[in-house]
């Protein structure tokens, strides 16, 4: 499921290793307005509505400059879930403004190309489906015949490495916790 907070980054899109300052001269509110406007205009220009828009980031009340400034805009268009993620720039406002420019580029394709061209380019932004659930033994890296103590030890080790407080992600921690719960359930 896509969440507005914290940032939901799509599988298959690598994260930027460094951040640029960017030359955008817009505020967070201005960039957000630009993205909303571009999404509406893109839907109008294509004749295909843009729905289920979720703007995902680590921006929250009192924290407009999070450590991870990445932004991902998720939406449905033409029956496909699309995600345009950008984390190239040092601020959420700059990353939002970059998404605005990506959307405007699709509008240029509509004006000078065809809907088929835009559909082909948007497939590159198609959000990949969630990976199939892995067996608990794969997640924990232990045998399917492992005992309760081995299950708990593997869980403790992995959760220390992959917990959000240790630089991991909420998704990874949730998968590890679910794997432990499933393993222990089989042992009762």
Descriptive tags:
elongated; three-stranded antiparallel beta sheet; 11% strand
What does this protein look like?
By secondary structure, this protein is mainly α. It is built from 6 helices and 3 strands; from the N terminus they run αβββααααα. A hairpin with a 2-residue loop joins strand 2 and strand 3.
Strand content: 5-15%
Summarize the main sheet: 3 strands, antiparallel
Topology pattern, helix = H, strand = E:
HEEEHHHHH
> Main sheet: which strands, in order across?
1-2-3
- Outline: elongated
Q: Report Rg.
A: 20 Å
* DSSP, total strands: 3
Count of helices? 6
Report the uncertain regions.
Answer: none
Structural class: mainly alpha
Classify the helix fraction into a percent range.
40-55%
CA distance, first residue to last residue: 30 Å
Query: Averaged pLDDT, please?
Result: 87
| Assembly context of the chains | single chain
Provide a quick synopsis of the model.
It contains six helices and three strands. It has a three-stranded antiparallel β-sheet with strand order 1-2-3.
List the helices and strands and how they pair.
Blueprint: H1 28-46, E1 51-57, E2 71-77, E3 80-86, H2 92-112, H3 115-122, H4 136-140, H5 148-162, H6 170-187
Antiparallel strand pairs: 1-2, 2-3
Helix pairs in contact: 1-2, 2-3, 5-6
């Amino acid at each position: 499921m896509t969440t507005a907070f914290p940032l939901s980054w799509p599988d298959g899109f690598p994260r930027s290793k460094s951040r640029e300052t960017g030359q955008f001269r817009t505020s967070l509110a201005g960039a957000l307005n630009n993205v909303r406007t571009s999404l509406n205009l893109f839907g109008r220009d294509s004749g295909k509505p843009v729905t289920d828009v979720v703007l995902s980031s680590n921006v929250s009340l009192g924290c407009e400059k999070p450590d991870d400034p990445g932004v991902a805009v998720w939406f449905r268009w033409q029956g496909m879930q699309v995600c345009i993620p950008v984390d190239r720039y040092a601020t959420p406002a700059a990353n939002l403004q970059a998404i605005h420019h990506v959307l405007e580029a699709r509008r240029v394709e509509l004006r000078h190309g065809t809907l088929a061209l835009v559909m082909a380019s948007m497939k590159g932004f198609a959000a990949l489906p969630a990976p199939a659930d892995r067996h608990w033994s794969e997640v924990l890296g232990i045998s399917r015949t492992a005992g309760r103590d081995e299950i708990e030890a593997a869980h403790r080790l992995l959760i220390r490495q992959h917990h959000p407080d240790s630089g991991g992600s909420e998704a990874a921690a949730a998968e590890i916790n679910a794997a432990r719960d499933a393993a222990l359930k089989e042992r009762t």
